[in-house]
Here is the input.
Amino acid sequence: MNTHILTIHCPDERGLIYKITNVIFNYNLNIIRNDEFVEKDFNQFFMRTEFSGEFQNDAFINELTSILPATSKIKLTSNHKKNIVVMATKEYHCLSDLLVRHKFNDLHANIVAVISNHSVLEELTSKFDIPYYNVDSTGRSREDHEEDIIKLLDKFNPDFIVLAKYMKILSPSFIARYPNRIINIHHSFLPAFVGAKPYHKAYERGVKIIGATAHFVNEDLDEGPIIAQSVIAVDHTDSASEMAQAGRDVEKSVLANSLKLVFNEQVFVFRNKTIIFD
Here is the structure.
């Protein structure tokens, strides 16, 4: 079945659902699933529609554009796999989980390359026949190091960049090149314990739950729009290292869940938060 995903974000007004679905009906297309939401504080309408059938893409989009508000954001995609580049440093758990999911077609994405600032994970990656690039940052400025990474990214032109425990802070200019296309997994239930060593901070604070957060990366450290989160219980008997060990499983599942949502066009970014049709 030839399926498509239509996403629309525009100012809310009367009759939007009727107008959109009527165009789909007139093209003799079959709606498989439809979700919509109105953000009332800013009067914003969000809609995601899965449908099947054959049609002329340009004519379809032009007709939708003619009946929707002028500032509408309309996106039409086929239900195909996204191309992604994974960036990592030394920790293996998130990268290995993504590599296994990719191997068994459970990621709904093609990992076209892995980029790291160390060689530690090269042997692991090579077992999955995926190109690995060690872009060493030793003794280099952040801008100079990132320039080499950008050259690689330009070569592969990924739909998304996934930071699977990439433990370097990206520059604002780097982030600006890929708006809402960089996804990070942070080992904390944000907004608690941003930055480095969150498990140590959680241990010192005596928290009773720890978690992980997947979010889009923006210029503010660990403050980008949140995609997915989860937590597990801990207590006073857990050391910081034991918390970190337990948290790795949470990090893997949260990252995988967030990627599934993003790759299936289920996530809208509005201001500094997300609207998610799960």
